[in-house]
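Entry:
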Amino acid sequence: AAGRTLHWTLGPYQNGRYFIVLGDGIHSVEVPAVGGFQLKRIGIMILRLKYQSPQGWITYSPELAMDFTRAPSFRWARPERPP
């Protein structure tokens, strides 16, 4: 079967470094805030996103399970903090 392209837009920070983290942290890949890559197979993808600020602090998303066999797109946003 033909592959598909996975696209993303990460934020809200313009400076710093973003990573896709797989396998409970066993493997991570630095990615641009806006980018994409070709997938050989479409299916279920489980990952976390990591952000490292220029000041050195780090934050992670919760585990994100994306089932592309059921939906062609996935959107996640960190919940807003109350004022």
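The CA atoms of residues 15 and 33 lie 9 Å apart.
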